[in-house]
Design a protein that fits this description.
Bound molecules: pyridoxal-5'-phosphate
Distance between the termini: 7 Å
Structural class: alpha/beta
Shape: globular
Number of strands: 15
Strand order of the largest sheet: 4-10-9-8-7-5-6
Low-confidence stretches: none
Strand content: 5-15%
CATH superfamily of the largest domain: Type I PLP-dependent aspartate aminotransferase-like (Major domain)
CATH class of the largest domain: Alpha Beta
Helix content: 40-55%
CATH architecture of the largest domain: 3-Layer(aba) Sandwich
Length: 415
């Protein structure tokens, strides 16, 4: 994609857009929640549908002129149903957080009780953090992972639920490298007569491809983002049984949003269509294989992985055992200088702060999109290790940067 038309009228914005394309081409995106969509998804997202007001749902709109918006939204819904096997799908949430907001609004009253995973243990702001609306409107208590094993403490969660008597239990996480046992959490929710929201934001693509156990048909509500392990452009999605369909739809519109971002719904339709191709299953499998290879090579270098490994697309490195004086932030900054972009992350039992935590989180979805296999991921692990071991050594940063240039030249991305 060129930005010639933007450049003709607005060179400042064109500079930023071209800069961003070059940045993505020339660096390795290892932020576990990021990916690269196809040119087809980007083209759909930049369509004339951005002009359209489609308040309501297909064939039940408040304004005229929605025949093509109806087509696009229905395609997105039908494809999502096929991908995840859900009875009911709402493709209008502007983001994963707004999908969660829609479910809370559909399922809870103000003051009701949420039980969700602690943010520093891998949870998400939208699960009831005090800085998020959910933490202000609802009562929130949090469960944890077992600090020894790094796995969800399912037994502790069950006991906590019996004591706290929540109205909803939230599963699904931002920095959890292991398979989630949704059925076990559902059993806890059933035992205390609570709803269960499975937020699969990070693993929507893995679930769609059958590479991770699916909560669809198990949990009462499932939310996801459409831009992480599935490459359908920025947005959110809600899935539920038919019994909750009307409540969910009215919680999204008019409950918490106005007109849907129909150009993004078009991006979702295209991206979901791509994910229905058998090649997507291979992509999802490779993403997980790559994360395992990355993790094992980091372990070979003596680094400590939370939970001892990974079942999904990300690894979480606890720097404290091997490099007690090095923080996640230092490593993040030096890696970025060398062209490897990932994020510092808290680890279970965090002893520093959320701003300067003790871990780094690294994901393989975007590298796998670029065509990386296990061997290339092992090489990236070697590069990450070199920086972890000497984050302030300019010569090391320069050498890693050189290798990143070679890798990004070999595995090309956008024209
Ligand atoms: C990324 C994420 C979300 C959604 O985030 P948005 O940026 O609002 O799309 C929701 N829940 C979890 C667990 C996430 O990791």
């Amino acid at each position: 994609m060129t930005y010639e038309t933007v450049r003709a009228t607005d060179p400042a914005v064109a500079d930023a857009l071209e800069g961003e394309r070059e940045r993505q081409n020339d660096t390795l995106a290892m932020i576990a929640s990021e990916n690269h969509v196809s040119e087809a998804v980007m083209e759909a997202q930049s369509s004339e549908l951005t002009n359209n007001y489609a308040e309501g749902y297909p064939d039940e709109r408040y304004y005229g002129g929605c025949e093509y918006a109806d087509d696009v939204e229905q395609l997105a819904i039908d494809r999502a149903k096929e991908l995840w096997g859900a009875d009911h799908v709402n493709v209008q949430p502007h983001s994963g957080s707004q999908a969660n907001m829609g479910v809370y609004l559909a399922a809870l009253d103000p003051g009701d009780k949420i039980l969700s995973l602690d943010l520093t243990h891998g949870g998400h702001l939208s699960h009831g953090h005090p800085a998020n609306f959910a933490g202000q409107v609802y009562e929130v208590e949090q469960y944890e992972v077992d600090e020894e094993s790094g796995y969800i403490d399912y037994e502790g969660l069950h006991e906590h639920a019996e004591e706290y008597d929540p109205d909803i239990i939230v599963s699904g996480y931002s920095a959890y490298p292991r398979e989630v046992d949704f059925e076990r959490i559902q059993a806890t929710a059933d035992a205390v007569d609570a709803y269960h929201l499975a937020d699969i934001a990070h693993i929507t693509g893995l679930v769609a491809a059958g590479v991770h156990e699916s909560p669809v048909g198990v949990a009462d509500f499932v939310t996801g983002s459409t831009h992480k392990t599935i490459r359908a452009g920025r947005g959110g999605v809600i899935m539920c049984g038919d019994e909750h369909a009307d409540d969910v739809d009215s919680a999204v519109f008019p409950g918490s949003q106005g007109g849907p971002a129909m150009h993004n719904v078009a991006g979702k339709a295209v991206g979901f269509g791509e994910a229905l191709d058998p090649a997507f299953e291979r992509y999802a499998e490779q993403t997980v294989t790559n994360a395992k290879a990355l993790g094992e090579r980091l372990q070979d270098h003596g680094l400590d992985l939370v939970s001892g490994g990974t079942d999904n697309h990300l690894v979480l490195v606890d720097l404290r055992p091997s490099h007690p004086d090095t923080t996640g932030k230092e490593v993040e900054e030096s890696l970025e200088e060398a062209g490897i972009v990932l994020n510092a992350n808290t680890v279970p039992g965090e002893t520093r702060s959320a701003f300067n935590p003790s871990g780094i989180r690294a994901g393989t979805p975007a590298l796998t999109t670029r065509g990386f296999g296990e061997e290339a991921c092992c090489e990236v692990a070697d590069l990450i290790y070199e920086i972890v071991d000497a984050p302030h050594d300019e010569a090391v940063v320069a050498e890693v940067s050189q290798r990143v240039d070679e890798l990004t030249d070999e595995y090309t991305l956008y024209d």
